[in-house]
Every structure is written in C-alpha cells, then in structure tokens.
Design brief:
The chain is α/β, with parallel strands linked by helices. The protein has helices at 36-46, 60-66, 84-93, 114-126, 152-156, 165-168, 191-201; strands spanning 7-14, 30-31, 34-35, 52-56, 73-76, 99-106, 132-137, 140-141, 145-148, 174-178. It is globular and about 40 Å long. The relative contact order is 0.19.
C-alpha cells in the first residue's frame, strides 16, 4: 500500500531504566513467552501507523535484540539517563517529513493492541487532527497518546524526566477520547504488578 503525506507514525519509548522494577531489566522481562517491550512493538507494527520508531537507551543492544525481525526503525538515545523528555525528543526528531503526527507508546504497556492504536489514530483524524488526542478510562488520562507534529517545538523545550503530559495539560486543542479498554491504564512498574499480569496470562 502506498503511503503519501499526512501519515501517522508510531514512537515506542523503550529507553528507561525502570528502576522501580528492581535489578532485572523491566522491558526484557518475559510475559507470555516474549519480552515485555516486544508486545508493544508488535502491536505498533500490526497497526496502520508507519513508520514505527523505537527509542532505545538502557540495555540498548538487548532491547534491540528482543525486537529482532520486526520492521522497526531503532534510534538510540545516548542521553536517556537525563530522563524521559530526551527519548521523546529523539523519537520526534527521527520522524520522516511525511509524518503529521505520532502515536507515542510506552514499552511497559503490553496490553495495548493494534486495534486500539488504529482506533486512536482514526479518532484523532475524525476530531479534526487536534494538537493531541488522549485516551481516558473512567475519567483518567492514559496512554498511548496521539501527538500532532505541530507540538514538536514544545517537545523540544522539555527537559528532565517528564513526558508530554506537561505540555498537554490545560491546552484547549488537546482532546480526550473516552474508551472502555483498560489497556490504556495498564503499565507495569513493579515486580508485583508484573507477577499479577504474568499469572493472568498464564
């Protein structure tokens, strides 16, 4: 399928240390027979988002190995230790000119599906391509978020361990997208959370 101007890319943030998880690298932990980060990457690859940019940092070689065989564009963030903002900036800087927006995914959210990604992107277009479209579940904002390229300059101004939420709050051109899919809230931070999901998957 040919893809013209105005495509929506995917940026998968997979650079963090995941310190709350403990000594084991969180994104490499095995869930359902595959690394945690691969679940999110496979969902992005199966979606209509293109290209899929993966930002690596901590244990970069192992994360890249865990994604072996997937048609993703790997971008290494050498500044990952300075916080999440550096990975977000690296991801947006790697987008092709044809990408008018990106759906930003987190590597520790393995239950986000291609269907959810596509629904969010469709919702963003249906709502007139706002600055961002943020999914909500039971009134709480979650992830992934569709972010327009028009916010790239604001993203470049971020620093430290903050994500896009800092620039999305209070903007009238940032819209919410209610969903019944709890995956938008299901990130894994601790071994206890992981154990609960792993037993459920088993």
């Amino acid at each position: 399928m040919s893809r013209g101007p105005g495509e929506t890319a995917a940026i998968l943030l997979a650079a963090g240390r995941g310190t709350r998880f403990g000594a084991e690298p969180k994104l490499l932990a095995q869930l359902g027979g595959k690394a945690l980060v691969r679940h999110a990457a496979e969902a992005a690859v199966r979606s209509a988002a293109h290209p899929v940019v993966v930002v690596t940092g901590h244990r970069a070689a192992e994360v890249q190995s865990a994604l072996s065989g997937l048609p993703v564009h790997i971008v290494h963030n050498a500044l990952f230790a300075q916080g999440l903002s550096t990975s977000l900036k690296a991801g947006f800087s790697a987008l092709p000119p044809s990408a008018c927006a990106a759906i930003v995914l987190l590597g520790d959210m393995p239950f986000v599906t291609a269907c959810l990604i596509d629904a969010l992107v469709t919702g963003w277009r249906d709502k007139g391509e706002p600055a961002a479209l943020v999914p909500t579940w039971n009134g709480q904002r979650g992830n992934p978020v569709v972010i327009s390229r028009k916010l790239q300059a604001a993203i470049e101004g971020l620093s430290g361990d903050v994500g896009a939420g800092l620039i999305l709050r209070g903007r009238r051109d940032v819209l919410e997208w209610p969903t019944q899919d709890p995956a938008v809230m299901q990130d894994i931070d601790t071994q206890e959370e992981f154990a609960g999901h792993r037993s459920g998957a088993g």
